[in-house]
Amino acid sequence: MNRAEKAALQLQAVAVLRMLKETRTYEELSDVTGLPAGDLNRYVNGHVLPGTDRASEVVESVGREALADELVARVEFDDEGYVDNSGVVFDQSFLDLVAPVAAETFEFESPDVVLTAATDGITLGAAMASFFGARLAYAKKSKETAVEEFIESRQRLASGIELTYYLPASAIDAGDTVLVVDDLIRSGETQELLLDIALQGDADVTGVFALIAVGDEGMDRARAITDAPVGALTTFE
Q1: Nearest in space to 122 (alpha carbons), one of 110, 139, 106
Q2: Which positions fall inside the Phosphoribosyltransferase domain (predicted)?
Q3: How far is the C-alpha of 94 from the C-alpha of 188, rounded, in Å?
Q4: Are residues 142 and 60 in the same domain?
Q5: What is the domain extent for residue 172?
Q6: How many distinct structural domains can be found in the chain?
Q7: In a domain, 44, yes or no
Q8: Fewest C-beta in 10 Å: which of 54, 58, 145, 232?
Q9: Would residue 79 count as lying in a domain?
């Protein structure tokens, strides 16, 4: 890890601690993190940065648990099991914290392209792309009128509905590394289409990440396609 990467990790840890401090005293924050209250006070107020080992622990373990709890508190399910995660995907500052935690937890390699599906995946994709310094690409269910060449992936769902996604061919170059992200993974059908698009573009998949996994079906489906890490911030049964 070079000096810039260490500094970025330390600042990410401080951002996580500041988020936690919004609803906790320093003593309560100490109970959550296992760190002395006095040190936490100095970190949160910007007097000193945590060491890299502490920063890594905060981002990877404490950060993931805290963000998962926050995500659960913001998500609602209706009587038919549909998910309302607008309280998450509309909060860019929250998603900006998710990106480093996901990268540290699942050890995603830095990609050239972050690939997602329009529209709810775009804000998460933007956060992940910004964190990695990667390009953002998002597939749509319709073609752009001014674009001549597309990568197209189509699948007939169990319901009989045909789902098709289109990505401008110029969005991915052969040999690019691609991280597939989405706000929600349930059946895995959307992620399967995105992975197919990446593979059609002769790209190498570095991972699949979702904010929310509903059950294991979608995660297992993604793992059947790629050997790269597959993870979600939290899972609902």
Answers
A1: 139
A2: 93-201
A3: 24
A4: no
A5: 86-235
A6: 2
A7: yes
A8: 145
A9: no
